[in-house]
Structure formats: C-alpha cells, structure tokens
Write a structure and sequence with these properties.
By secondary structure, this protein is mainly alpha-helical. It has five helices and no strands.
Length: about 200
C-alpha cells in the first residue's frame, strides 16, 4: 500500500494532476513548489491569493470611487461650460472609463457574495484577477483623461494633449512594461533550472 508523503507540518503533498479542466502542468508545478516552499496546499494558496486580491482591491476601490464621484459632479460646475467639443468628448471617455473601472473593481465582491459557500473559490479568484486587470486598465484611461481635462482648463488644449499622452506613457511603462519585463526575465531564468 502506497503512503503519501507529508510535510513536517502534517499536510499531504499535492500530487501532480495531468491536464484536467482548469489545471495545467504549470499549475501542478506551482502547487508542488508551494507545498515545498510554504507547506501550503492548493486550497491554502487560493485563500492566500484571495486575501492578496482583497488588499489590492481595497486600495484601488477607494481611489476609483473618489475619482468617479469627482467626474460625476464636474458637469455641474461653472468651468465645465468652458470646455470645447473635443474636451467634452475626453470628459465622456474619462467618465465612462471611471465608471467601468468601478464596476470591474467592485465585481469580485458581488461574485464572492453570490458564490459564497458554493466551493467555487478557484472561480472567484480567477474572475477577480481578470476583473482587477480590466479595472486597472480603465483606471489608467480615466487618470489620463482627468490629467488632460485639468491641464486644458488651467493651461490650454495643446499642453493638455501633451500632458495626457505623457501620462499614458508613464502608466504603460510603470504598470505594464516594467512588471512584464520582470516576469519574462524570471521565466527565462527559471527555464534552465527546470531541465536539470
């Protein structure tokens, strides 16, 4: 009779599961790594991932909700009449992005409530991850739009467009390019070790 090895903490070692639905070879490797490095089962990893997502969402939700509230009252301010047609278009895109970002960043709460006690934490964590990425993208668009609108009112349309474009470049570099470079370099560095 075969006995499953256990970690010193007593938890059983996760087995490599083939390519079943929702479980790839990389996921199985990740489970084994987590077990060895953290003494963490796949369920514990899901709990940790969910807790990390909640912390990130707490930071994002406050900012995006304040931004959305600011944008909702903007048309009722006297200075709004000074915006030309182009800047009103920028406002509409910005407000739409802020509302969309709010929807995506609050969506994980709804999913968690509706799937509560249904043993669907994997589904919730995966969906929340995707919603957070979409919310971040929309928040970036909204921040670029707000920057453009403010600079347009304070300085003028040409400087506003330059500032909006510069803000977009900074967001893309800091939020996308830099972390993806780290991710790709870590993947390349880990590849030779896997084949040893």
């Amino acid at each position: 009779m075969s006995v499953r090895r256990t970690h010193p903490g007593g938890s059983p070692r996760p087995r490599r599961q083939g390519n079943r639905r929702g479980n790839t070879g990389a996921g199985a490797d990740h489970d084994v790594w987590n077990w060895h490095a953290r003494a963490e089962t796949p369920t514990q990893r899901l709990d940790r991932n969910w807790a990390h997502l909640l912390q990130e969402l707490r930071v994002l939700q406050t900012g995006v909700q304040l931004l959305t509230g600011f944008l909702m009252i903007l048309p009722f301010q006297p200075a709004f009449d000074s915006l030309d047609g182009g800047m009103r278009g920028v406002y509409l895109v910005t407000a739409g992005a802020a509302v969309g970002g709010t929807i995506f960043l609050v969506a994980p709460v709804s999913w968690h409530r509706l799937l509560f006690r249904r043993h669907r934490l994997q589904t919730i964590v995966t969906a929340a991850h995707r919603f957070t990425l979409a919310g971040l993208a929309l928040l970036g668009v909204a921040m670029c739009g707000v920057t453009t609108l403010i600079v347009d009112v304070v300085v003028g349309p040409v400087v506003a467009m330059i500032t909006g474009a510069a803000t977009a470049v900074v967001f893309v570099v800091v939020w996308l390019v830099a972390p993806m470079r780290r991710r790709l370099s870590a993947t390349r560095g880990a590849a030779p070790r896997r084949h040893r």
